[in-house]
Known about the structure:
Elements: H1 3-17, H2 30-48, H3 51-56, E1 58-66, E2 70-72, H4 75-85, E3 90-94, E4 100-104, E5 108-119, E6 125-138, E7 141-154, H5 157-162
Parallel strand pairs: 1-7
Antiparallel strand pairs: 1-2, 3-5, 4-5, 5-6, 6-7
Amino acid sequence: MALFALLAAATAAVTAANGATASAPTPADPLTVEIAAIDAKVFTAYNTCDLDTFARYFDPDVAFFHDTGGATFDRKSVVDSTRKYICGKVHRELLPASLHVYPVKDYGAIEEGEHYFCELASGECAGIAKFVIVWARREDGWHATQVLSYGHRTMTEAEQHAVPPLKP
Length: 168
């Protein structure tokens, strides 16, 4: 089964485990498709430690709020934290059904969703969190100006069984 299909199944299972009902996917609007593609590029760079590409998606004065890690107010700090705490240690996966995108008139978009994290050493996927990213559309592309990463917690046993483990 393809990874996307596994993730879609995992998302439905996690949604069901959280007490919500899963609904059939609906066609996404063009802005959601565009932001989802950017999310995929940002987090592919994050997961592979391509920090030059990762950095390009953040405004130089990005405000990043992490409930357990604190706040930073510049791109360099975001990249340095990713290098120190993520590279070679953690893999992030979006729960696709949780993704919602809202336009911001004359500015850009707000992206919200949930993602889970897997430890690379063990392949165990046990952490989950919510996120919000405020994107500014500029002449040179999309830039994250504000990021909220919050609600970090350990997945329930049902959620852990619902997501595919990483392959070592």
